[in-house]
From TrEMBL:
This protein's name: Thioredoxin family protein
Keyword Cell division: no
UniProt keyword list: Signal
Signal peptide: 1-20
Cited SUPFAM superfamilies: Thioredoxin-like (SSF52833)
A Pfam family it matches: Thioredoxin_7
Length: 335
């Protein structure tokens, strides 16, 4: 037993040290310097987002060392590896509105720094031909993700295109566009296909709002999904979509019926009533205040705490919300 922790530490150190400088990639620079260089050389940028502890990343690193890959990258890209274990790299992605759900992923930017394509690299692509095909697609003016989104915006509603752009707008954090695309896809899908594996993947990887017939089918048929897939994963998928629906600015426009529907769905997932109330209290109070229903908001807060003293920091938060539209010197209406 005493040897377990040293062995785990050794394995972690080994994994981290395995990612030495890959000769197919350039040495990392400050992002500003990379963008300036790309604009000057008129070359797109490839960022391989990876984690040093990711076994799939380690397998890809071996393939990416191929001389064929190196020659292709040298000729066509400014290629860098982006270590997501480093805080500054996570901040870089957030600043550029890029969400990476799994590693390794390829992020391809235009010479001007615009997002052209993001590909989550699965095991099926881990070969020299698979990587080259991905890179060629990412730079194709007609087939890269950004081009497909432009086609959608111009009125193209082909189901395959809708799926591609749904995933793209998810990883580029374009929530408004994502919801519209997923809704358009649902309109194109036959009702009898709602339960398909492809739509299961759509819910898991791209869906950000529960107000969608495919999600409604999913939540109403949870036992069938539990029988087919891992139960914990199914519950987590459903919860992710529901929480994404309420933790957004658009939630402040929801009707009482929509809010109750989301609460009911969370109940179906086995989430206790107290936890559900905790997730909704801020939203519901803010909606009350948006509608100038201050007394209703106060009553809602008091009911939430069930007559118990409100913790000091939480009370300060509520007092600030309750008095924000009045005189700043007004006393807090909470006991």
């Amino acid at each position: 037993m005493t040897r377990t922790l040293p062995i785990i530490g050794f394995l972690c150190t080994l994994a981290l040290s395995s990612f030495g400088q890959n000769p197919s990639f350039k040495t990392w620079e400050a992002p500003e310097a990379i963008f300036q260089r790309a604009a000057k050389e008129k070359k797109p940028i490839l960022l391989e987002a990876f984690l040093p502890t990711c076994s799939h990343c380690f397998a890809y690193d071996k393939t990416l060392r191929s001389p064929v890959i190196k020659n292709y990258l040298d000729k066509n890209f400014l290629a860098y590896q982006l270590d997501l274990s480093k805080r500054e790299n996570g901040l870089f992605l957030r600043k550029n509105k890029i969400y990476i759900p799994s590693t390794p992923s390829f992020i391809i930017l235009s010479p001007e720094g615009k997002i052209w394509h993001i590909e989550i690299m699965g095991e099926e692509l881990n070969s020299v031909p698979g990587i080259l095909k991905t890179l060629q697609l990412a730079t194709d003016p007609k087939e890269r993700d950004a081009a497909k989104l432009a086609r959608y915006q111009a009125g193209d509603r082909q189901p395959d295109l809708l799926l591609s752009t749904a995933f793209y707008t998810r990883v580029t954090m374009d929530t408004t566009q994502n919801i519209a695309i997923v809704n358009d896809y649902a309109k194109s899908e036959a009702t009898e296909n709602y339960g398909s594996e492809l739509n299961f993947l759509l819910i898991q990887k791209a869906m950000l709002d529960s107000d969608n017939p495919i999600f409604s089918y999913f939540i109403k048929n949870l036992p069938a999904y539990y029988a087919k897939y891992d139960t914990a994963m199914v519950k987590q998928m459903a919860e992710n979509v529901l929480m994404s629906s309420i933790f957004s600015s658009r939630a402040r426009t929801y009707s009482p019926a929509r809010i109750q529907s989301i609460k009911n769905d969370l109940t179906l997932l086995g989430i206790p009533a107290k936890q559900i109330a905790m997730r909704f209290i801020v939203l519901e109070v803010l909606i009350d205040l948006d509608q100038a229903k201050t007394m209703q908001a106060i009553e809602r807060i008091n009911q939430f705490y069930e007559g118990k003293p409100i913790p000091e920091k939480e009370k300060a938060f509520w007092c600030k919300q309750l008095t924000r539209k009045g005189d700043a010197t007004s006393p807090c209406p909470l006991p």
